[in-house]
Amino acid sequence: MAKTTQVEYRVYEGAAELSRAAAEHFLESIQAAVAARGRARVAISGGSTPKRTFELLANASERYEKEMPWDKIELFFVDERTVPPTDKDSNYRMTKETLLEHVPLKPEQVHRMEGELNPEEAAARYESTIRNQFKLEGAETPVFDVLALGMGDDAHTASLFPHTEAIHELAKIVTANHVPQKDTWRITLTWPVINAARDVFFLIGGKDKTEPLHMVLLGEYDVETYPSQLIQPKSGKLLMLLDKDAAAKLPAVGADGVGRLEVTR
């Protein structure tokens, strides 16, 4: 049965404006979650644009650092490379250096993927962590309050890469995914878990994203080639924060910088 997703995309001039828009959205969405449920369970992704956003959130001269309810946040990761937490490629290391070392998040509020372990073991341990934190039973799916995604120039998101096994994983919360094209393994949340989140948003910038983003939203449905097409939140709403380069092949936005699409698949 076809599902329709209301996609709202907001387009910004460049990297600085895009990062600030993401910081604003993080603050507003986390504040709303805390107001509604007393805490915010947040899952984040790595990458250069999130890095700039985290730097803004941690900057003592910005309002985000002061207004964020840090004591009410449980922080999780969408995916991780199979490297130690001190490695330069670690999503955790980037987050630690740009955000965690500068804000009042206690260690017990931060739940990292253990990329230094065997991938299958790391995935199983992270699934157990999530089940314990969310107090899940049986086949229950965790519902994150805020979940931030990026997209690669190959249209992958999280560590759901084209033509890899994780695209077909329906039962697990977290899976180890072999990525032959990068000759590596990744640990990732599965797409049903991502789609269950209350607020799912993409943060995408750069000319190398123009064509893949166009295909993800307006091209033929082919999740093997364009895994980001798997992201169809249960809420029926998907937000995309884009720079003008990434959005270049999408329908023009209005005077308010916002565009809207109905995507049915």
Automatic annotation (TrEMBL):
Swiss-Prot/TrEMBL GO biological process terms: carbohydrate metabolic process; pentose-phosphate shunt
UniProt keyword Nuclease, yes or no: no
Domain Glucosamine/galactosamine-6-phosphate isomerase: 15-239
Broadest EC class assigned to this enzyme: hydrolase
UniProt keywords, alphabetically: Hydrolase
Functional pathway: Carbohydrate degradation; pentose phosphate pathway; D-ribulose 5-phosphate from D-glucose 6-phosphate (oxidative stage): step 2/3
GO MF terms held by the record: 6-phosphogluconolactonase activity
Domain of life: Bacteria
EC number in record: 3.1.1.31
Pfam family, one: Glucosamine_iso
InterPro entries for this protein: 6-phosphogluconolactonase_DevB, 6PGL, Glc/Gal-6P_isomerase, NagB/RpiA_transferase-like
Record flagged with keyword Hydrolase: yes
Catalytically driven reaction(s): 6-phospho-D-glucono-1,5-lactone + H2O = 6-phospho-D-gluconate + H(+)
Annotated PANTHER family: 6-PHOSPHOGLUCONOLACTONASE (PTHR11054:SF0)
Protein function: Hydrolysis of 6-phosphogluconolactone to 6-phosphogluconate.
Family assignment from sequence similarity: Belongs to the glucosamine/galactosamine-6-phosphate isomerase family. 6-phosphogluconolactonase subfamily.
Record-given protein name: 6-phosphogluconolactonase
Organism field: Silvibacterium dinghuense
